[in-house]
Specification:
Blueprint (H helix, E strand, L loop, with lengths): L8 H11 L4 E4 L6 H10 L6 E4 L3 H13 L4 E2 L1
Parallel strand pairs: 1-2, 1-3
Helix pairs in contact: 1-2
């Protein structure tokens, strides 16, 4: 029997990223995605993955571009 877990959509984003091998998340807290950032801030560091709250949306995009350019799976 397969175990199932009920989660909200924003939390599912995090679990999906983790399952896909995402190594880092760079994000700027802004409604309605605050719960996404909270999930990454709580779940990524204990797993040895990077979470960084950025000072702006633009800086988050620049960090994603830099991470992707090095061949890492990253997201914002």
């Amino acid at each position: 029997m397969t175990e199932r877990t009920l989660v909200q959509g924003n939390e599912a984003v995090g679990w999906g990223a983790l399952s896909a091998g995402c190594e880092a998340f760079f994000g700027y807290p802004i409604t309605p995605q605050n719960s996404v950032i909270e999930w990454f801030a709580r779940e990524f560091p204990p797993r040895g993955k990077v979470f960084l709250q950025t000072p702006s949306e633009t800086s988050a995009i620049m960090m994603v571009l830099g991470g992707a350019a090095t061949g890492k799976r990253v997201m914002t």
